[in-house]
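Field guide to reading this record: the first block holds the primary sequence, the second block holds the structure written as discrete tokens, and the final block holds curator observations. Each block starts with its own label. This record concerns Short-chain dehydrogenase, catalogued under organism Planococcus donghaensis.

BLOCK 1 — SEQUENCE
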Amino acid sequence: MVFLSKYKVHYSGADRLKQLTGKTAIITGANSGIGLEAAKVFVDCGAHIVMAVRNIEKGQQARDSILQHNREARVSVMKLDLADLASVRLFVENFQKQYDSLDLLVNNAGVLAPPYSKTTDGFELQFGSNHLGHFALTGLLLPLLKKTPHSRVVSLSSLAHKGARIDFDNLDGSKGYKAMKFYGQSKLANLLFAQELDTRFKEHNIQTLSIACHPGISATNIFKLGNRDAPQFLKSLMHNILQPPALGALPAVYAATDSELKGGEYIGPDGRGRRKGYPALDTPHASARDKAVSLKLWDVSEKLTGVEYNFT
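BLOCK 2 — STRUCTURE
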């Protein structure tokens, strides 16, 4: 039996988690929310977790909180700012100096509905951080993923991808910006990327699996008011009506460990509206099944990031 944090949530696939023993995993945004809850599960099962975080101090605090409950946990903290491609490249360089394999990459970090702003490289912040940063990170880590047997890439999308579209004529928001619209676009991009990545793995007979998931509607600290924390009454309300982070992390845990998954799946909660519940197969919105858009997004992403994937 595996229980997640104080919520005592039973994960029925506990035996399958044993495969994480001795494995190395990167989780972006692992200092809080879903990323932190997933990290707790993975370290309890013997995995070595690299917490890839923008704020090292918060990352160290999260690491300390894990060690308080598990003194044997193998967890380290490394600097990664997905809104800065130079930071992404530096992270990969540093990781490659310390590790010669990578079993699991969880593309979890994200920003939700900030005021209009741009990344260091001039991309709209949500598209640049949520999608392009992870696209570049995965591509630069591809050599390690390819050489590691049965490795996986898990990318977090969102219910917000439903009804979204990729506006290739306004990716930077210079022709108009609506925060939630651009968030939906970035989460649709995450899902299109995960699916296309798995397709290319299979086309080149690479064992690595790419799987997408979403947490339903989870009460994590991604819900902020601008750059400020939401008021306490609003936080309390969210935790009463939304899925707690420990439950929200289950689809990512499932996607990372379930032995029956073949790659290309989309995992989410099984409850009403797919907002809450236990992990199960979900069906992407029609907007995520447009092959022409998927291929164009891939080409645009390579050009914008300067990261070209080598599957040979």
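BLOCK 3 — OBSERVATIONS
Confidence is low (pLDDT under 50) at residues 1-10, 223-227.
The chain has one domain: 3-305.
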